[in-house]
Amino acid sequence: xxxxxxxxxxxxxxxxxxxxxxxxxxxxxxxxxxxxxxxxxxxxxxxxxxxxxxxxxxxxxxxxxxxxxxxxxxxxxxxxxxxxxxxxxxxxxxxxxxxxxxxxxxxxxxxxxxxxxxxxxxxxxxxxxxxxxxxxxxxxxxxxxxxxxxxxxxxxxxxxxxxxxxxxxxxxxxxxxxxxxxxxxxxxxxxxxxxxxxxxxxxxxxxxxxxxxxxxxxxxxxxxxxxxxxxxxxxxxxxxxxxxxxxxxxxxxxxxxxxxxxxxxxxxxxxxxxxxxxxxxxxxxxxxxxxxxxxxxxxxxxxxxxxxxxxxxxxxxxxxxxxxxxxxxxxxxxxxxxxxxxxxxxxxxxxxxxxxxxxxxxxxxxxxxxxxxxxxxxxxxxxxxxxxxxxxxxxxxxxxxxxxxxxxxxxxxxxxxxxxxxxxxxxxxxxxxxxxxxxxxxxxxxxxxxxxxxxxxxxxxxxxxxxxxxxxxx
Length: 474
Fold this sequence. Notes:
alpha+beta; 8-stranded antiparallel sheet; globular
C-alpha cells in the first residue's frame, strides 16, 4: 500500500531539501514495507546537460566477456542529458556491497564449508596476518589497516587477486586482532579472495548465483549498465561538475564494486528485514545483525555486526550499510521489527547539509512514526494440546508473578512477567517436556517441565524454578 498523501509529501519534501542543500546533481530515495515498495522519489538530473561526460575508454571500464545485462559495461550511447533519476536508474552502491560478501561467508558457514573462527590463513596461506580470523574481518575488528597497498584503490584500476595478495605485508596490521574497532576495506578484499579460493568460483559468480538470482535482483550489476547516473565531484566554490572515472576494483570488488537500482536494492533491504530461508536462514541474518563491536564507545549509537552497520536512534536500532565510491554516495537502512527500509543514492562524492545518511534516517522515521504498523487483528485460537494446556496459566518465581500462554499460530509457549516488562520469552518444543527459548533474556535457554506422576508441578528455566505457589519452594 503506498504511503498516505501527507507522509508522501513530507518524504518528498525532505528529499528535495537534501538535494538542494547537498548540491548533488541527482538524488533518489525509495521506501519498502513488508516486502513492497511504497514510495519512490527522484530529484535533479542524473546526467546534467552542461556536464562533460567521459567516453567509455576514459572510464576505466574493462570489456569483459559478455555475461548478460548484469555484467555488461556502458558501451552504448549514454543516458540522455537531463534525465531525472528513476527507480531503474543504476547508481554505484560502494560498501553496501560488503553486506552481500558477508552473506556469502555466512551461507557457506551454514553449509559447513567454513567456520567463522577459522584463521584467514586456512584459505589464503600466504596472507601475512597471523591470528586474524574470518569473524574478525567481517566485524572490522581484525586490526588490519583500512586500505590495500598502492594508490587509492577506489580511484584506480584494480589488480587481480594474485597481485593483490602478493603486495600484502605484515605492516598492514594496525592493531592486535579484536582489540578495537577499525574499519577495513582491505579485510573485505581478503574475504572475497578467501571465498574464491574455497569455492573455486569468482566472487561475482557467487554473488550472482547465490544472492541476486534467487532474490530477483536482475538489475544489480558488476559494471554500470544503462540507464545509469554519471558520478561527479562538485566544485566547492562555483558548483561545476567533474565526472569521475568508473574503474573496475579488481580484487577489491568485494568491498565496493557493485551497481544497483532503487527497486533492486529494496529487495535486498526487504531480505535483511524478512529473510528468504532458501537464500539465508532467518537466524543467520539475525546473527549478522547482532553487535560485534561498538564503533563509538562514548555514546553507543553505532556499531558493526557481521557485515552490517548498526545505528541506534532513540529506542530503535537500524541495520544496513552506507556506501561511497568516487562520484557516488549510497545508504541502505532497515528497521527489522517493522520490516521498513530505505535506500538512497546521490551521484556526487560529497553532500553538505547533513549528508545522505541523515536523509535516510529522516525518511525512515517519518514513515515509521507517521504510519505505524497496524496491529494484527486478534482471532480466536484452537484448543491447545492437553499436555500444553497444563503448562499455561499463572506461575511464580521468588514472589514475582508470570503468565504462560499458548500461541497456536506459531506453536510456541509465551512466558511474560505480570505486569509485563521486557520482551516475552517464546519457547519452541524440543522433545518431551523440553522447550527451547527463542527470545528475550532467556534466548537459547531450556525450559524443562517438572512432574510428579502425570501432574505438572514446576517449570525449570535454566535452573530457575517456577511454581504455582507464590513463595519459593523450600
